[in-house]
Each structure stands twice: as C-alpha cells, then as structure tokens.
Write a structure and sequence with these properties.
The protein is mainly α and 153 residues long. The chain is built from 7 helices and no strands. The protein folds into 2 domains: 85 residues, Hypothetical Protein Yqey, Chain: A, domain1 (Orthogonal Bundle), CATH 1.10.1510.10; 53 residues, Orthogonal Bundle (Arc Repressor Mutant, subunit A), CATH 1.10.10.
Length: 153
C-alpha cells in the first residue's frame, strides 16, 4: 500500500474514532503533500512523500525547542505528540553509530580531507539517510568526524 493510501485510511479511522489531534495532524500532512504535488506538477512518489513528512517533523522539532525556551511546555507537549504521529510514517530512525558508519564511508569515498570538503560528504550522506536521520544530527556528526580527521577512521 502506498504511503498516501495509508495516510488516507488512517485519516478515516481517526475520524471515526473522534481522535481530534490525529485528524488534525493527518489533514495537515495531507495538505502539505497536496501543496508539494501542485508545486512539482505530478503525483508524488513514496520517497517524495517521506521527504514531506521529514520536513514536517523538522518543523515540529524546531517548534519544540522554541516553545521550551519560551516556557510554553503545554505547546511543546502538543508538538511532541504531533511529532510522534509524523514519525510513524517515516522510516525507522538510525542509531548514532549507524549514522557515523555511513558518514565514515562517505568521507573515505569522497576523499574528504577537512571541513572544506563538508559539501562533498553531505552530498553522499543525505540521500543514503533520507528520512532515517535528522539532518541537524547528521550535519553535526559530519563536522565532528571531519575535524577528528581521516586517520582516526
């Protein structure tokens, strides 16, 4: 079953169960997918839909940080609930060790020798991790491993 069909079925189920939060999140996701379809001019593949869900999840993470800094724990909790629902449509998140292994391989494959080659490494890493890791964490780990140097890999 395609990801869009699963989303529509889950929306129907949530509406029947009167799960207002889930209905709200799924409608928002469906609207974001529709906007992306209009933008691209074609039906989205599952990979493109995963990309939309990744963007929505990233927005929720950023909102959680801002709400916590502003002392609005009630709103941060709402965003956490939305984030957990969105993550159920994303691939299983990789562990830090798995991310580091992929980054190390990309560093070796690209021949990167320092922070100036970060773009080369990110171009190899991000397609491999699409939806399975937070881009912010990946970025930090790439910097960390490039600063350590190739000799330690």
């Amino acid at each position: 079953m395609s990801l869009l069909k699963k989303l529509e079925e889950d929306l129907k189920t949530a509406m029947k169960a009167s799960d207002n939060l889930k209905v709200s999140v799924l409608r928002m996701a469906k609207a974001a997918i529709k906007n992306k379809q209009i933008e691209t001019g074609h039906e989205l593949s599952d990979d493109e839909i995963i990309s939309v869900f990744s963007t929505l999840a990233k927005q929720r993470r950023e909102s959680i940080d801002l709400f916590e800094k502003g002392g609005r724990n009630d709103l941060a909790e709402k965003e956490r609930n939305e984030l957990s629902m969105l993550q159920s449509y994303l691939p299983q998140q990789l562990s830090i060790a798995e991310i580091e292994n992929i980054i190390s391989k990309a560093i070796l494959d690209s021949g990167a020798s320092g922070l100036k080659d970060m773009g080369k490494v990110m171009r190899l890493v991000m397609p491999a991790l699409k939806g399975a890791a937070d881009g912010k964490i990946v970025n930090e780990k790439v910097k960390e491993l490039l600063q350590k140097g190739i000799s330690s890999l």
